[in-house]
Amino acid sequence: MRLVILGATGGIGRIVVQQAVKAGHEVTAVVRDPSALDVPGADVRRADALDPAELTPIVAGAGAVVSALGVRPPVKGPVSLLSSGATSALKAMEAVGVRRYLMVSAAGAFPEPVDGPLTRYAVKPLLNRFLRHSFDDTRDAETIIRASTVDWTIARPPRLLDKPRTGRYRVGGERGLKGALNISRADVADFLLRSIEDRSTYRRAIVIAR
């Protein structure tokens, strides 16, 4: 399958590109600086992911678009990378009839029914205080995606670790995932790629964790 990867030079995006190439997908990585990504087998395209006019010809013919866009801390003021990226990708996809969209979100930005008292009243409020701007953008992006008509999947990982892929992680249901503390970036990438053709993940926001 031909995949278009946004945020391909980021911590998760780069791994998605690597894993997708290894799995035999035809991978198009969208970057602003092609010199920042060297993955043999990937088609690296220079484009602004926030500009649907630039993105549309790249997305044409893709089986899925995977967004691993993210803001590198510290974030000192309002940002709109994820929300603008979602808007751009959805406009480009609509223009050429591509329907499958997957995005990396953040578990910490959302209260879940299964959250224990410590998580609900201490951990997540603290995270939302220090990551307020990026979490506002994350929530805005999810709102945009949920209002769309595409077959979307939102992955909500907790704290990200730089550890190898295991393929062994828990996947939350509609109520979230109890004790979701961390997961490796490599396992987030694994989940995204496994979910592309998994219809049970369509139009769902899914918490994933070790």
UniProtKB/TrEMBL annotation:
SUPFAM superfamilies: NAD(P)-binding Rossmann-fold domains. Residues 7-198 form the NAD(P)-binding domain. InterPro entries: NAD(P)-bd_dom, NAD(P)-bd_dom_sf, Polyketide_Oxido-like. It comes from the Bacteria. One of its GO terms (molecular function) is biliverdin reductase [NAD(P)H] activity. This is Putative NADH-flavin reductase. The lineage of its organism: Bacteria, Bacillati, Actinomycetota, Actinomycetes, Micromonosporales.
